[in-house]
Amino acid sequence: MLNQIKGLHHVTSMADDARTNNQFFTHALGLRRVKKTVNFDAPDVYHLYYGDEVGTPGSVMTYFPFPQMGLGRPGTGEVGTTLFSVPKNSLGYWSERLSGLGVEGLKTAEQFGEKRLHFAGPNGDGFALVEVTEDKRAPWLHGGIDADHAIRGFHSVAMRLNDDGAMTELLKYMNYEVVDTADGVKRLAVNGGNGADVIELESMPNVSRALGGAGSVHHVAFAVENRAKQLEVRKALMDTGYQVTPVIDRDYFWAIYFRTPGGVLFEIATNEPGFDRDEDTAHLGEALKLPTQHEHLRALLEKHLQPIDSN
């Protein structure tokens, strides 16, 4: 079993408009933009990161906003819902806030004994807020939302699969254990994880495979402490038969990727070096930061990339 994995690191999705995406996460949800950079493989497209004050692993939602990208088609083989942790008794506040901002898809529910508020992102992205009694993670408090209501980080991701059998076995190997089943949904969790340590699986054998696009999750990343732990995980996965990429330097973490049996793309990302490696904590996410290999394109990219701040 891979005891190096402690929960989620980040979730990366796609969007069709950078300004709308930025406004939704920084204003509607009150998260901090902790990095404004570009896609390593398509530098004419932003890579935007949102999270808590410092972008703590387990709090970071990231986006590739491809201009005018077509909407994705929901289905199996994907993360269908990304869930955030909020304090107990805060869903009334959130329902009123999101409704007032015109957010669609608002629906209350209760699952595994937890109250939830489901809602849709700008591109139909599946999100939910989950009331959690004892989440001691510190929220970002300069996004217009007070400490009694602010998002603490991820609670979980919920995957839609044709069959959850192989994914269950993989997650067990990755330090998760099945802790509950309700209404056809299987819940797995990491014991002693980082707070973002729950995964939910739903088998949907009669549903077509998802087609990626705006509003779709591109990949989900799991957290390991450092590069040494990551290499241990990579070797173990390869020894088990998975095709795993070489280690890739993503500036703010190192990453490896592999495709799971259910079709979802997994990443294993390091907690080091963090988002303050090239910006002071007080100014995270303000300047356009470029990977070294794309720095020579700065003048061109600054003209091309859509301004995303209201000022």
From TrEMBL:
Residues 7-132, 153-271 form the VOC domain. PROSITE patterns: VOC (PS51819). Coiled coil: none annotated. Pfam families: Glyoxalase (PF00903). This is VOC family protein. The lineage of its organism: Bacteria, Pseudomonadati, Pseudomonadota, Alphaproteobacteria, Hyphomicrobiales.
